[in-house]
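I am sending you the entry underneath: sequence plus fold tokens. Let me know what the token row says about the fold:
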Amino acid sequence: MTTPHFYPVGTPGQPWGDTERAEWRARQVVQRHYADDVVAALNALPDALEIVQYGQLESITDTYPLLLAKTRNWNPALPTALVTGGVHGYETSGVHGALQFLRDHAQDYADRINLIVAPCVCPWGYERIQRWNRDAIDPNRSFRDGGRIVETASLMHWVAARNDDLLVHLDLHETTDSDAHEFDPALASRDGKPWHPETIPDGFYVIGNSENPEPAFQRALIAAVAPITHIAPADAQGNLVGLPLQSPGVVWGESRSIGACAGFTSARFATTTEVYPDSPRTTPAECNAAQVAAVRAGLDFALQAE
């Protein structure tokens, strides 16, 4: 008797090998273009921001320059903030929220804090609206051991080489309905494990680093976002994504130890934002605005705490 499988790639109970990864990769279709959406937007930014290529992602069919924007007139006497988006390429508001912040608000922080903004860490995933990179590896578990894939290693090495004293790191993410019907089943299939469906939080929340949670910082982000889009309530067990609620919209989880992007620096104030774009109560524009509000609130809080 054949056991029905919950995902179209793989065999129940067996981790994927090269054949399954290639089959999965062949199913991924380009749906938007990094050059049009990200590279062009970066090149249109004002001259106060310098565009830097910190790496290059190559495959048989694609080449992507890995780009960030940084303060051009860098002042070593000022604190430094890092903003990252598109670590999971399918999480759209992380990418466009970072770009919107650069376009509309970066100048507000001139002479107050040095900025480094990498708006789309994983362009292959961005184009295919995919969580993983082309080798079916989760970038947000790869920010450790010097970076386990090109996308993470390139950013980690560039940041480390500068030796900046980072005060803030905001990593912009989304939690989507596709996590439940596509990405979680794919993960279970890839690893040869059973799939246990999870509840998707309905609203915005943040995940503070449990190794250094900074509760007041996390609450400041929630307060800034609440007027823009709704904050996720806890589930019946008092949790969000399986983590105990610490305060409205705030949970703490491991970052550094699991290789999450928000944990790869020593920034005192670090968080992962999570927007819920699939709610009928919000819009794409509001999701982008929520990310911008979170970035601004994080920078403002950290500067006041200095």
Summary: The longest helix spans residues 284-305. The mean pLDDT is 96. The chain has one domain: 18-305. Residues 76 and 184 are 43 Å apart (CA to CA).
